[in-house]
Amino acid sequence: MSMAKARKALKKLADPVKAKHALRFFKTGKGDYGEGDKFIGATMPMLRKLAKEFTRLDIHSLEILLHSKIHEERMLALLILMQQFNFAKKDNDKLQQEFIFNYYLSQTHYINNWDLVDVSCRDIVGGFLLDKNKKQKDILINLSKSDHLWEKRISIVCTWQFIREHKFDYTLRISKILIKDEHDLIHKAVGWMLREVGKKDIQTLMIFLQQHYRKMPRTMLRYAIEKLDKDVRQDILKGHL
Hints:
mainly alpha, Leucine-rich Repeat Variant, ARM-type_fold, DNA alkylation repair protein
C-alpha cells in the first residue's frame, strides 16, 4: 500500500459534473466557509470503499493526503484514520487510540469543512473521550471557545457519542457556550445535537429549551425542535413555552 497508489485510485473516481456541483454545495466562493476548496467529484460511498482498501497507510502518507488542497483526498485520509482508530479500540490498544486522538486535534486546520468534521470527529474525538474523566473531557470546552470554526463544530458534534450513552452534560454545556455564536454552521450543529438529546430524553431537551429558547438563533431552535409535535413546535416558535 502506498499514498501514490491511493491517489491514483482516487483519481479514477473523478467526475467533473459532480465536482462542479460540489463547488456550489460546499460554498467554495470568495468569502464563503469553503473558499478555495477543490473537488474531483468522488462520492462518499466510493471514498468509504477506497478507505477499506488503503486502511494500512502510514501516518506520513495520511498526513500528505490530509494536507492536500483536494477535498476528497482529505476525506479519504480522515476515513482511513477513523478506521485505524476503531481497529485500535476493538483491539483495546489504548496507546494507538490516544495517538490518533492527539494527532487528529493537531490537524484541525485541515479538517476544514462540515462534512470532514461530521464524518470523523464522532468516532475519533467522541469515541476516545467517551469513557474519560471530566478533566480530559474538558478539552471540548476549550474547543468550543476556540476562534476556529471547525474546532467549535468538532466540540459539539463529537458529543453525539455521549448522547448515544444517555450522557448529556457536555452537549448541554457546549450548547450554552455556542448559543451566542454567529455562524450558521454552528447553529445547525448545536440544533442537531439538541435534537439527538430529545430523541433519547425529551424531558431533558424541554428543560433546556425552557431555559434558553428565547436566546437561541432561529436556525438552531428549528433544528432542535424538528422532531417535536407540530403544535409544540409552533408554540415554541411563537415564544410560548
